[in-house]
Amino acid sequence: MLIELGHYALILTFSIALIQSVLGLIYWRKDNRIAEFVRLAAIWQFFLTLFSFLALIYAFVVSDFSLSLAYQHSYSLQPLIYKITGTWGNHEGSILLWILTLTLFNAAVAIFGKNLPTQLRTLVLSMQGVMVVAFAGFSIFTSNPFARLSPAPFEGTDLNPILQDIGLALHPPLLYLGYVGFSVCFSFAIAALISGKIDAVWARWVRPWTIISWIFLTLGNVMGSYWAYYELGWGGWWFWDPVENSSFMPWLVGTALLHSAIVMEKRNALKIWTIFLAIMTFSLSLLGAFLVRSGILTSVHAFASDPTRGLVLLALLGFFIGVAFTLFALRAPSLRAGGLFAPISREGSLVLNNLFLATATAAVLVGTLYPLFLDALTGERISVGAPFFDLTFSILMVPLLIILPFGAFLSWKRADLIAVTQRLMGAAMLALLITIIIFMLTGRRISLAPLGIYLGFWVSFGAIADLIFRSKFGKIPFRESIKRLFRLPKHIWSTALAHLGVGLTVIGVVTVSAWESENITTMQVGQNAELAGYNIKFTVAEERKGPNYITEHFEFDVTGKNGKTKKAVSEKRVYVASSMPTTEAAILTYGLSQLYITVGDLDVDGARVVRIWFKPYILLIWFGPLLMAGAGFLSLSDRKARIGIPKLAKNRLSRNKKVKAS
Amino acid sequence: MTFWIISSLITIFCIASFFILTRKSAAKSDNNKTEKDKNAREDSLTKQYFKKSLAEIERDMEAGIISEEEAIAAKGEIAREILRLEKENAVKNSWVDSENGKIKLLYIPNLTFISSLLLIPIIAFMLYNILGSPNLPSMPLALRTNPAEQNIGAEIDIEEAVKRVEEQLARTPDDARGWSIIAPVYMRLQRYDDAVNALRKLQTLLPPNADIETDLAEALVMANNGEVTKEAIDLLKSAAKRDPKHIRSRVYLASEAMRNGDYKEAIQIWQSLKQLASGSEEWLALVEEGLQEAQANLAEQAGNNQQEGMGRNENSINEKQEEQTPPQNGTDSQAELIQQMVARLENRLNEEGGSIEEWTQLVRSFLVLGEKEKAQQAYNKAKLAYPKEEERLEVDALAKQAGLE
Q1: What ipTM was assigned to the predicted interfaces of this complex?
Q2: Which domains are present in chain B?
Q3: Which residue of A10, A18, A33 is the best one to mutate when testing the B interface, meaning the one whose CB has the most B CBs within 10 A?
């Protein structure tokens, strides 16, 4: 009965959202009663969906195979944690999770939005209501998670083994928090377009939502990348796979949005552009959902390959994008663009940042969609691979990274580029020096790697230089500078940390791409292999039993450069119910570098093919984004009303001085 | 029933709260709250914001985070924003006043609101009626202790059963009984490779046993499409040796000897089998038949050899060689094997039908063997079985190439 109550709760959510959005969009202008109803409806929807989702989890936990979804994606012997995560490790359940996140955010707007202008809040919540209608409708009509089986089978067919992993437990919810969070920004943009009002309060609300969504999207992507790295056993951390791209594109535009929202909050400028980006970000999130779920792509994410679902999603995508851009075309010209600024200024550099990010997104979009269109139109199959993306993306990123440290140093409205360049000279020199030292010490051959490393250090030191400059080190006594450093507003710290994160990521990407070493060899138990100064001894190979799989279990003793020996465990599992194999790589961490071992099939003479990689500084790739996300949280905690401080115009400056002098 | 009660309670709670909790704000909006009041509230929100920003600037300046000059610049920005806002509000208020009548219409009448709220349960229950299964109880695994009972009357799905045994075996791979149950089922389901695996496992678990060896040999032969491998023969021999009274292994060995044309050996085995029989066994007839055939063949073989020695009647030699003598070289035996396989495939496809790939394979095989007529026949049947052209692209291409119609 619990399952059926969950099903009913979902349907009730749908019908409440339907009435909420219709009434809200008709009566948003005037009626307080409707405003209160829209608010309450958003809160109730959240509790109903939560109940619905818990009912689904419960059915998975007790292995109720009369629930079709549990039969298809669960198994009585699965560990409890994977029974729970299996709830959203499939198309239907993940759509329900999406709805849950959506209603969670709506409830948050409803509860914490008391200081929002009533009309704006009603409009935003009504738009969000439309989204609940769309997704709940999609769920109950085309992919109902509560479909039942009678008579119930006795055993389920197991969750896809590569999804039986703690990475999966976190990856989708994080991503959804990101995607769905951007839907709030989208609704804010639509509300602004409908009401024609974009004021300071509006701007003040959009930025935190952007940051929250961006943080979760960042974490979700990092999680996904790390999961692919250790679970798929290929040793790669990014493949420019269409599915990865479809979550990367919203991130890129979201990053642009994040920056333009800052300009908007602090300087009341770039409003129309921000609205455009808010629409784009969510549209790309929807596009990602469509690509992943329509069956157009084949990948671990493509759990639903049902063309009808694809069609419905395409219709939803068309509807939201269509409505948004029609409104945009009609209303944008009548909106006030807001604050003026000189080309060389903080705003100016953020505009550049936005342009590069938008272009990079376009490049990724083209690379992702072009093969699909070509296939659809001419039937010709091509694949746009990593080389295309590596080239176009890095060409676009290089200038972005070059101007990045300048941005943080420039003042708002108008700035003095020469003065800033002088201040940054130290960082540039230091970065150059360290790059040269690294290359001299390690005796690497000349390639593009030094440039990449240099850019990484340049961005990192630029970020640190910003903190040093602002706390006036060298200009005032050291102790006071330290005090000043810790009293700097949190948003300055968050900018510096986020940019440091970018720099570290760049360093990690370059070192791994350029200096990764690999050893593919056949080994028998007792034999040794060498790689990058590590001695790897194959010690154990035996069969073992797991809860719902049997596994070939391998152990290695790895002796590091310091002479210490660590044990590494790698497995080749076969999951019983689905008889699908998975590879568990052995990963040993040395500082920021990792040693990655996978074991292949049995050779004729009883030896094993063993692949060993040494990945220098690979952890920086994930540590950087984690730092960025942390900086996001820091920025969120700084909710003081601040305005971007412009530099006074020169003539005004002198006049002021004169006034004081007299 | 409980379901309907609970779901109705949830629904009533939602609707009632929508109605009751919003009444207060409805009263507020009726309470002569003019448009201007509302604008004033929103203005004050914005103004509060700017006040906060101004305070923040002061604080930052005192803390020394920004300089005096910067503070002046920042205050200037805020002043400009406030001026602009006031100008905008002046315009907006006049606009609101002029359209006051039209706006009033947008207040929601009580009746409309109530009837809209009532739509919620109507839509919800209607949809649930279509989509839900209210009478289906939950069936957590823990409560389903006796699966067999629930399955009475339902047809037992053999695949399902096999699956459960497999799962059990995955948990307890040392369970010899489980393997011995599942092996013959695999054979019946024609999952010969799985049968081989199960029997090999059984071999490691139990002491050497003639029955298992023979079963394994049988499974190996089936898994290799009827080809009798050396391993199978060794297994049969070992079984026969292990158990001097073992029948099945001996029957297989005799048949194999017959197939190889080693009639002397065959006769020997048939005779030993005959001795083992007490007289009433069903297989005795088979043994007798085999024995006679072997003796006859042996005699003929001897005759042929003589004739060959005398160099006469070559035609008959050829005929008989083709019919009976064992193949002398690899090519012959392979061709024979292919022919047998093709014949098997043909029979199966004629009787049970098959996939288009199998039909394609059959047509191709006949073409390779040079039997164009048979290929044509097979092609015709394939066309009957798969009338859609897009399904048999491959076989059509093949036929066209070979000049079939």
Answers
A1: 0.79
A2: 164-228 (1.25.40.10), 247-299 (no CATH), 333-402 (no CATH)
A3: A33
